[in-house]
């Protein structure tokens, strides 16, 4: 997360805490249904506890990842589970900080930032064709 903080450049105001939960598809499905109204599992969910682009301090939020989905996607994308896991933690953390991908412009900004962070960690661009 330090690499993400370096690239995203949020206002760090003190000690911060972030929870990461590795769960299964069934639990992720329930969380996605409960909090987003989507009747399916998903690879990563973020639950921010701070204002978007606000100061980074205190409890930042939670990131949940569905293990079976991550394993399947890593195989489908011909990437290591470790690299895919790292990518989705970075993706989830950027959501915690306030980034999103609802519009093309937002997606371009967020994906560019993810790619920079991952490159600094020695991980290939997950969006490259």
Structure notes:
This protein has 129 residues and is of the alpha+beta class. It has a single domain, classed as Collagenase (Catalytic Domain), CATH 3.40.390.30. It has five helices and three strands, in the order αβαββααα. A three-stranded mixed β-sheet has the order 1-3-2, with helices on both faces. A hairpin with a 7-residue loop joins strand 2 and strand 3. The model has no long low-confidence stretch (mean pLDDT 93). Its cofactor is Zn(2+). Belongs to the endoribonuclease YbeY family. Its EC number is 3.1.-.-.
Secondary structure layout plus pairing:
Layout: H1 2-8, E1 12-23, H2 25-36, E2 44-48, E3 56-66, H3 67-76, H4 81-97, H5 104-120
Helix pairs in contact: 1-5, 3-4, 4-5
Keywords: Cytoplasm, Endonuclease, Hydrolase, Metal-binding, Nuclease, Ribosome biogenesis, rRNA processing, Zinc
Pfam families: YbeY
EC number: 3.1.-.-
